Amino acid sequence: MAIAAATESALRRMDEHEGALVFWYEAGIGARLFERHYSALTQSYYARLLWEAVGDGEAMAAARRCFAALAVPAERGDVLFRDANGVSIAEVPQRPNSYLLNGWLSALVSAWDYYECSGNAAARELVESSAQSLAGLLHRYDAEPEKNNRYGLTCFTYLKTPAARIEDATVIVPGEGAFGLTGHGSHWANHRMSDARIVNLVFYLASPEPNTVRLNVARPTPVELRLGHRGRGATVEFRVAPSRPTGAVR
Which InterPro entries does the annotation name (predicted)? Predict the structure, then answer.
């Protein structure tokens, strides 16, 4: 009875989306969440739970549709990423992809459990391909020289131009695109700080190629960069062009 009641409650909380059933997280809940989204971690967990714990026809159909959300591509704002690093499913779908390690691993474990109880071949294919991609990226989570590991593969920074106001700033991420300033005041979005000489920028650590920063400033100025969130292992180089200051950050 309690399981049935919990199932009904879960089904009431889910919404239709791209032929799937999803649990929406609203904007403003949590440090990284500044847009409405759903999570691969939650979807895979409930796909397994609904199939395994309940096992009736309605719950199994809902489980299949929970899992189906993991196949909706990130290009439409969803959780499945296919890129130069392979296949990944995101705990928090962000651009550039943050590759949150714990969430990715936990989502894969739940998706594999769902495959084992349901026999869903698509679940097995997703887990196997995504696990292979994860294996190829694992070394990028190493945080030397602290002998620790990173939580994810993005890093927020504070960039300051002491002698000039920053008119605009863009981070160009190899294979991901160009990301300008936004109105989101999160560490995990490019945005202006209250001081017009400072911007918060997000760098991407999953590429062997450096990120590039393009700054629009009124006059020549030194550039100061303070790295956050386990970013101290990064190396920084700046190259100043006559008409446009640019920075490359690895």
Answer: C5-epim_C (IPR010598)
